[in-house]
Amino acid sequence: xxxxxxxxxxxxxxxxxxxxxxxxxxxxxxxxxxxxxxxxxxxxxxxxxxxxxxxxxxxxxxxxxxxxxxxxxxxxxxxxxxxxxxxxxxxxxxxxxxxxxxxxxxxxxxxxxxxxxxxxxxxxxxxxxxxxxxxxxxxxxxxxxxxxxxxxxxxxxxxxxxxxxxxxxxxxxxxxxxxxxxxxxxxxxxxxxxxxxxxxxxxxxxxxxxxxxxxxxxxxxxxxxxxxxxxxxxxxxxxxxxxxxxxxxxxxxxxxxxxxxxxxxxxxxxxxxxxxxxxxxxxxxxxxxxxxxxxxxxxxxxxxxxxxxxxxxxxxxxxxxxxxxx
Length: 326
Ligand code: ACO
Fold this sequence. Notes:
Strand order of the largest sheet: 1-9-14-13-12
Oligomer: single chain
Order of helices and strands: EEEHHEHEHEHEHEEEHEHEHHHEE
Largest sheet: 5 strands, mixed
Bound molecules: acetyl coenzyme *A
Helix content: 25-40%
């Protein structure tokens, strides 16, 4: 069902420090060519010591509010998608308010891994059908804090960053034409952070075992990511009554080039519509889609009336896709 809304503005925040594949060669037994061949990634951004997820989120949100011509206090709700919250509680969305000295807008996190931004978009679309008039959806991560920097199979993949979008009801010409979302919690252990929560609270032993870092079966993630991202996109396109060749721009979750390309091919969207930033930022989990959206807009790749498809897959497993008329 068509849900009228408009993305009034987008913005991004990326830490200035660049970690290249050559830098990683000096840290673990890897090579630039292995990383580029398997993932497409050349470099990623790493937050400075002391910079938390809410700091990047606040920077992106402020810039997006400025671009939209509103004050953060005018928002009805702030939704932050993240897997790397500042603290287990309160939410990163509330820490973001703390940082901005903000009081009033409802604020909460969505824990859906790399699907967090599109989960947030789906929730925001529902809220805009009610009384809400201005909603911020933010994807923000400091993945570098949960990466095991001794594990070459995971540490080369991730990066830090944040992206924000300000949504309003629009004039009825733009909106979500179709969407799909879902999850399969049976596969939770394929990609997870074993310790630090109520199942295995932080102890000297969990810290010594590096159980607070990303644990992942890469091959299993790869297969499920391709299947779920293409199926979600296909379902959203069918609901939108849009053919794959009518999509002007495809912004998939930017995990790696091979996953994005395989998901695109299975969905049948022409190759020249795929928008990729993974080469420069790596996998920023929930932040990849809003950062990519912002760069695509800046480059003039999205204009009013365009059909924009987004699809994502993440820990949980979770998946989500959305087809918008801009
Ligand atoms: N440098 C050099 N060699 C490496 C590295 C590295 N960084 N990492 C692993 N290897 C080695 C392995 O040890 C293995 O060596 P062996 O054959 O001697 O045992 C060999 O490379 C092949 O390992 P595989 O794991 O089979 O490599 P694969 O081709 O599957 O690529 C990768 C691994 C890139 C992780 C892939 O599985 C993948 O992209 N998975 C998806 C993971 C992902 O994107 N997760 C992000 C979170 S979820 C999401 O965002 C959707």
